[in-house]
Amino acid sequence: MAKARNNGTCKDLTLRLSDLRPSDWSDARERQLKLKRQSWQVMVGNTIFLEARNLAPILGCERVYLKFEGSNPTGTQKDRIAMVLADQAVTSGQEAISSATCGNFGVAVAYAARHYDVDAHIYIPKKYEVPKDRLKRMENFGAKVHLVEGYYEDAVTYSSQQAIENNWFDANPGVNEVPELSLAAYGEIAFEIYRELRRVPNYVFVPVGNGTSLAGIYAGFKKLYLSGKTMTVPKMVATSTRRGNPIIKSFKENKRSIVDLKPGEIKESKINEPLTNWHSFDGQIALDAIYESGGFAEYASDTKMMEFSKLVRSEEGLSVLPAAASTLAVMQTLGRDGFIVKGTFVAVLTGRDFD
Hints:
By secondary structure, the chain is of the alpha/beta class. The protein folds into two domains: 42-75 and 178-349, Rossmann fold; 78-170, Rossmann fold. The protein contains twelve helices and ten strands. It has a six-stranded mixed β-sheet, with helices on both faces. Strands 5-4-3-6 form a four-stranded parallel β-sheet, with helices on both faces. Helix 5 (132-140) links the parallel strand 4 and strand 5. The longest helix has 22 residues, at 22-43. The model is unreliable at 1-18 (pLDDT under 50).
């Protein structure tokens, strides 16, 4: 039988598989998994959604709302998919999860792996300027961090190879069921926005690197539309750095098919690092979402990202990652001096601080 440790407060009731008879093992494991799922579903998602009354006049937009994913455990929307993938790894009977990252996703995977008691192997390109606090946080969560040669895309390839060789769960974009799970996880953001507004916003601005978040959010709104709950979908707007993102470049060149950049086109900085890549793994479905929704894609400079990161903190009290503030920098370009753009605008933002 399972033993419960009583420390006098009745708060620490631990189910230990080592105490079980073999015949009880399967049922106990399922109960543990159920408890873990229930606990992370409380911690992740249903993030802060607020009307930015102070920012709206500065941006020149009638009604501006902020969907702040910084209230997730590690500060970004990446927690949504990381937990799903860690759950999938355990369900598949694998004892480790492998992924490449430039920072945010690695922290989320490390956190999710610790929650599910599996090992995490995180692969990071040596040349990328990943903030030391994020590296430290991955390690503090128990992840094994591997620095590898090449670009992010090379790290993805190597990480996937290691997953195959070691029978680890491959959490990299574009492999196995990861794309479908990612779209479903990020689609929850659309459902949450709809529940808060009780209507569909006119525009949703999303920072893009691989494009997965934007594609998933649009898929969520499209699901609401196809189910008859809404009469329309929002215009999806992709924002990123002019120093290396194929989604933005492909759209601005009026291309319907995503076109990779040359690796040498990437100009990474500490500010734009989450947004840069020469190959966006989910870039095509993100590009399709932009065109299908009647949206657009635009660049933001490092200077503007920093400016709006500081502005949203001073005006709305949110500590926002500068790369995510590209949404607000681009939103401001819609208006003209002295004019207010009518409609409802939503910016998806991630957290700045990781300490």
